Every structure is written in C-alpha cells, then in structure tokens.
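Ops channel
N.P.: pipeline sanity check, posting one input/output pair.
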C-alpha cells in the first residue's frame, strides 16, 4: 500500500497460500471480510495504532459483516498471534469460511491446553468429563476439583465463576452472602448453565453461645430457603455444615440437612472443619452419613493429616480440601510457595509453580481440592491473571508426580498445621481460641 491503512485484497486463495499470506501479514495485522458472495483476506500495512498492538504480540480479527446481525457485524475479537496460527495449521478453516464465521470471543477469554481458546458465558473447549468425579450416595457425581470463591466480592465471584466454567471447572464452592450473590448473578445471565454446574455451599456457623438446638435448626432451615431463592434454583448439589462447640446444635442442624436432602433441596451433604470429636457427634445420631469432610490440607502436614484423613475415610467420608498452599499466618503460604524442594520439582515438570506442585500432591494423595484462582486471597479483579491461575490449576489433573517426588513431599514436616484450624472451640487448636 502507498498510504497508511490502505487495503490489498486477495480473493479465493487456496489454504496453503492463505497461510503463507497470513504469516507474511502477521507483523502488520489482518482482517477477514465478506463482501457479496466471496470471502476475502485483507492484509494491511500497520498504522500507528496497529503498530502499538503489534508491539504487544497481538492481532485483531474483524469478523465478516454479511449474513450477521448488526450487533455481531460491528463486533471484533482479539487473540494472540500464536493462537491464530495454531488454529489455522490445525485445520480451523472456519475463520475464513463464508458461512461459518463465529461470533467474537469476550476479551476475558483464556487459553486452554492444546492451543484451545475459551471465553465466559458457558462456552468451553475443555472436553466433557475432563474433571474426575467421585461417586457419592444417591448416584451423585462430585467433581474433585472446584473453584473456591472465598473472600471474594460479588463482582469477583461472578467473574471467577465465568472464567472457571470457561476452563471446564464447573464445581463452584461458595459461601452464603456476597459470594453466593456473585454466583446468582452468573446464573441469571446464563440460565442454561445450571445443569452443568455443581453448586456447593455452606451453612453459616450458628455462633450463638447458649442458643438452643431448636434455634440453630431454624437458622439453618431459613438459610437454605434464602440461598435457593437468591440463587433462583430449586436445589444445590451439596450443602456442607460447619461445626459448633455444642454437640446437640450440630446434631440438630445435621437433621435439617438430612431433611433438605429428602425434600430435594440438595443432592448431597457434607461437613466443614470437623475434627474427630465433632465428627463423632454427627455419626452418633445421623441417619445419613456425610459424604465429605472439608478441611485444610497441604504439604508439611503429612499424608494422613494428623490421622483425620484415615479416620474419616474408614467411615466412608472423603476428604475435600482447601488451603493447598496454607492459610494463616502468612508465613505458611510463603514457606510453601518459596520452598526450594517444590520449586525444583516444578522445574522438572516443565516449569510448574510451587503452588501447582502443592496442589498436585493433594490430588495424588486421594483428596479433592477447592482452589482459589491465585495466591491473591479473595480477589479476581484482574481477569487475565485469574483466568490463567484457574487454567494452570485445572492442568494439574493432566500430569503426575513421581514416586520419588511424592516420597520427598510426604516427608516434609514443615509447615506443620492443623487440618481443622478454622473449626470452633470444640476442636483442639482452633484458630483464635
């Protein structure tokens, strides 16, 4: 072209010639347009704005403008140069088809394993069934990897849910309140996604010293109804009960969860931060056993988590974990994330982070895991890092530690920790007691 931005039009190129043209045009940017009946490829010399985009190693694809609704005709999408050429070379000719022009991807789309690309709103390139599941009672499939929205605002909770679904992570583990509100917002915007999600929430701590079991049971019933109404669903997939210093309170609230299960308000039931004594209180009177015990688990605590893992599993209760890189005090996650041992193992597996090695140890030890998007507690305001963090943790299902590496990690004795650190004062070593 003789002038900035002037178009050179090439029509009806064979695929090989098109790829060559794309490579030549790669440094400058390109657009694929449809005028009349003939799809065309247009390469252009970069203007100053295009040069700026090129410096970030990005390309811009302008979608076809014919046969599309007006809103779609005006839309465009961004992707990296490597992603685009990978798609072309793998045979994704729909990018230049006269009738198979896809709608644009949202800006918060993330790269998936194998060069795939996925964006929010329920569109996922992760194959169905990628996340392994446990078979719980009543035929419920429990995905062993979940998004943990702990501490997030409603906006970040919704964003994280969007990004998790894009990565094939459909188990959403959230607290009542603002985290729940973010999940509810996602469901309202994506009503067709409810059946693809595993919604997992918790009953709030009773937290009323001297309160009666009857009062505790009422609070649990009221919360269940409130949560279902806010979420706009008839049932969730799991309800988990927090512990309490009073045995009769735990027993009364567990009966409420059993009733919710019978009434179809939940498909499964579990516990949160139950030490052996609290677990015994539930097993003493329950008619339905908990399916999971949701506790902290990380390297340094030993394979059996102070004996609580085997104690639970012998009673048919699986361990669902949080805090794979530690929680409090801040020195605990810092010690794990900066561990030379975990760093060395991660490097041996193609540059995995210490956090990914820590997660892989938990998974390979037979536990499920609820994971935060990043080590930045309670935040997903940066969609790019949040999406990458979720993707990399999903990828931990696709590689394994060697027996020698597992033995080294099993032998770690620091940072030592209490698996029920955030239990009530009824359990030994509870935080703040």
């Amino acid at each position: 072209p003789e002038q900035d931005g002037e178009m050179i039009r090439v029509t009806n190129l064979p695929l090989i010639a098109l790829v060559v043209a794309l490579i030549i045009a790669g440094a400058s940017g390109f657009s694929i347009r449809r005028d009349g009946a003939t799809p065309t490829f247009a390469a252009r010399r970069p203007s100053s704005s295009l040069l700026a985009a090129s410096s970030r190693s990005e390309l811009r694809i302008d979608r076809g403008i014919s046969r599309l609704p007006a809103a779609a005709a005006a839309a465009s999408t961004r992707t990296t140069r490597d992603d685009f050429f990978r798609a072309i070379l793998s045979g994704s000719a729909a990018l230049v088809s006269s009738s198979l022009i896809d709608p644009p991807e949202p800006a918060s789309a993330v790269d998936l394993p194998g060069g795939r690309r996925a964006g929010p709103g329920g569109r996922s390139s992760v194959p169905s069934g990628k996340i392994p599941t446990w078979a719980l009672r009543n035929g419920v499939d429990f995905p062993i990897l979940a998004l943990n929205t702990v501490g997030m605002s409603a906006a970040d909770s919704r964003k994280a849910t969007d990004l998790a679904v894009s990565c094939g992570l459909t188990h959403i583990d959230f607290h009542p309140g603002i985290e729940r509100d973010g999940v509810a917002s996602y469901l309202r915007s994506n009503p067709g996604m409810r059946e693809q999600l595993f919604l997992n929430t918790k009953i709030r701590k009773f937290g009323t010293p001297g309160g009666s079991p009857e009062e505790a049971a009422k609070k649990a019933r009221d919360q269940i109804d409130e949560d279902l109404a806010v979420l706009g669903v008839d049932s969730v997939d799991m309800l988990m009960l927090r512990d309490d210093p009073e045995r009769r309170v735990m027993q009364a609230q567990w009966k409420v969860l059993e009733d919710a299960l019978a009434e179809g308000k939940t498909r499964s039931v579990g516990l949160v931060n139950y030490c052996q004594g609290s677990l015994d209180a539930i097993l003493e009177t329950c008619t339905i056993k908990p399916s999971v015990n949701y506790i902290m688990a990380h390297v340094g605590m030993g394979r059996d988590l102070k004996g609580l893992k085997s104690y639970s599993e012998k009673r048919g209760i699986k361990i669902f974990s949080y805090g794979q890189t530690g929680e409090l005090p801040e020195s605990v996650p810092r010690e794990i994330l900066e561990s030379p041992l975990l760093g060395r193992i991660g490097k041996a597996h193609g540059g995995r982070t210490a956090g990914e090695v820590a997660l892989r140890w938990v998974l390979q030890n037979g536990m499920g895991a609820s994971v935060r998007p990043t080590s930045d507690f309670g935040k997903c305001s940066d969609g790019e890092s949040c999406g990458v963090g979720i993707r990399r943790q999903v990828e931990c299902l696709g590689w394994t530690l060697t027996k020698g590496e597992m033995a080294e990690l099993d032998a770690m004795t620091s940072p030592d920790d209490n698996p029920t650190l955030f239990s009530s004062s009824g359990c030994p070593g509870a935080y703040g007691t």
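N.P.: looks fine end to end. Residues 35 and 165 are 36 Å apart (CA to CA).
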